[in-house]
Amino acid sequence: MSFLGNVIWLLFGGFVAGMGYILGGLATCLTIVGIPFGIQSIKLGIATLTPFGREIVVRPESGGFLEALFNILWAVLFGWEIAVAHLVHAAILALTIVGLPFASQHLKLIPLALFPFGKELR
């Protein structure tokens, strides 16, 4: 079921969204200061490409001061816009019964979009 869900997800916008995150991450990596944020954007793009059958987990080695600082900077600069976009898409998709599984995938991506440092999708 997750394979079929991922194929439908990719056909109806997941590919475009994932590539947008990846291209934005590559552009952010052009500056030395932006490399950590670009890497997280690329990670979010890869997670957006195939969200079905995956779950967000906290890495065991996470929890440092620098990671918390980067999460705060990410949330203020980029994360809230991405989270609101996922929330709006989830609300629109939840209007139909067919869209409910896709809405739940958007809701699953919100915590990763807000605070990506120290988390990954497995």
Q: What are the key terms here?
A:
122 residues; mainly alpha; two-stranded antiparallel sheet; 4 helices; UCP028777
Q: What's the total helix number?
A: 4
Name the shape in a single word.
globular
Percent strand equals under 5%
Q: Mean of the pLDDT scores?
A: 91
- List the helices and strands in order: HHEHHE
Task: Summarize the amount of helix as a percent range.
Answer: over 70%
Number of domains: 1
Structural class of the helix and strand makeup? Answer: mainly alpha
What is the CA-based Rg, rounded?
14 Å
Q: Could you give the distance between the termini?
A: 17 Å
Q: Outline the low-pLDDT stretches.
A: none
The main pleated sheet reads as: 2 strands, antiparallel
Query: Number of DSSP strands?
Result: 2
Strand order of the largest sheet: 1-2
By oligomeric state, this entry counts as: single chain
Pfam families: YccF
Keywords: Membrane, Transmembrane, Transmembrane helix
GO cellular component, one term: plasma membrane
Protein name: Membrane protein
